[in-house]
Amino acid sequence: MALFRDDTDYTRRQEGFARYKQLMSFYGFHWLRINLLTTAGMLPLAAGIAFAILTSSLVVLLPASLLGGMLFGPFLAGLVDAIMRGLRDAPGNWWKNYRKSWRQNWKSSLLPGAALGFFLGLFAFMAHIMASAVVSPTPGTVLMLLLSASVVLWFHTLYWPQLVLFRQSAANRVRNALLFTIKHSVRVLVAVLIQGVWIALMVLLAPWTLIVLPFLGFWFPIFLAQYRLYADLNRDLRIEEQFIAVEGDPWAKDSFEEPGDEAEDAEPDPMNSGTRHWEALLRDVEKNKEARS
User: Fold this and answer.
1) Is residue 58 located within the same domain as residue 118?
2) Residues 286 and 163 in one domain
3) Cis amide linkage into residue 207, ω under 30° from 0
4) DSSP 203-250
5) Fewer beta carbons below 10 Å: N end or C end of the chain?
């Protein structure tokens, strides 16, 4: 799924825009598949909010948003987990890792999902009221709505990666998010703006953007935001340092020869898992090249 001419060296971790191309080539199709599942998980929440808006009922909106958000939470956690695994070059099959994410994170994602669903429903309901009101809302009211939405977007941008990466209390995650924002305020602001602009375009250009939603609607803005933040997150939270101790370093070796029968039948070796991981990814890239040619 590499954009532009595919001249990236896949035998080492790239930097800058070459790293972006490398990640898209290795994981883009994986994230697209998970995005389809995430879209399916979003449908109950979207249907509940839409029904509440059509009936103009806050009584319907509250349970629909909370319950729909709880259902959506594990799907979102699976997507964020897949993106964070890609950014740290974690080994393993994408589908096995996705199922593992569900087993590990579904319980802890229920309350954050409910909170996210509540705010999505609230903002959608308020936006509908403003758009259908006889008297146009004041600029201050619109600004307050946008600022509130930005705060919620900021919180979830920094909360969900911690949820899928580490076992810690919600208070610690919030504390880390605040400290990280203070230390890297500009980068965090850019990440929030990237997602905010994407959401605005999806809303303003609807219903045409519904065609894009199942394929790019969720994973692409999250990936762009986390790609922007990952270097600082990794340095401050020691992400790769902790996971390499368990999974091995995917870049520890620069040999990418095809494994023999003995290697295929051998027991997994944590210190060598990264090499087999990159052999599989390189084979996928070659298949994609052949498909495009």
Assistant:
1) yes
2) no
3) yes
4) HHTTTGGGTTHHHHTTHHHHHHHHHHHHHHHHHHHTHHHHHHHHH--T
5) C
Q: What is the pLDDT of residues 222-235, one digit of tens each?
A: 999 999 999 999 99
Whether residue 190 contacts residue 228, with contact meaning beta carbons closer than 8 Å, is answered with yes
Long-range contacts for 101-105 (Cβ within 8 Å, ≥24 apart)?
Answer: 101/77, 101/164, 102/74, 102/77, 102/78, 104/164, 105/74, 105/77, 105/78, 105/81, 105/163, 105/164
pLDDT in tens, 251-274: 775 434 333 333 333 333 333 334
Whether residues 157 and 266 share a domain: the answer is: no
86 with 198, same domain: the answer is: yes
Encoded tokens for 201: 């375009």
Task: Please indicate whether residue 126 or residue 10 has the higher confidence score (pLDDT).
Answer: 126
56: tokens are: 């103009």
Same domain (yes/no): 158, 284: no
The type of residue at 123 is F
Q: Residue by residue, what is the 3-state secondary structure of 53-100?
A: HHHCCHHHHHHHHHHHHHHHHHHHHHHHHHHHHHHCCCCCCHHHHHHH
Residue 218: give the domain boundaries. Answer: 17-247
Asked whether the beta carbons of 110 and 102 are under 8 A apart, the reply is no
Q: Are 99 and 114 in contact (CB under 8 A)?
A: no
pLDDT in tens, 17-40: 999 999 999 999 999 999 999 999
- Here the tokens at position 160 are 């969900």
User: Would you tell me the crossing angle of helices 139-165 and 58-87 to the nearest 10 degrees?
Assistant: 50
Note the pLDDT of residue 248: 77
Q: Residue 156 corresponds to which amino acid?
A: H
Q: Are residues 41 and 101 in the same domain?
A: yes
Classified as helix, coil or strand, 167 is coil
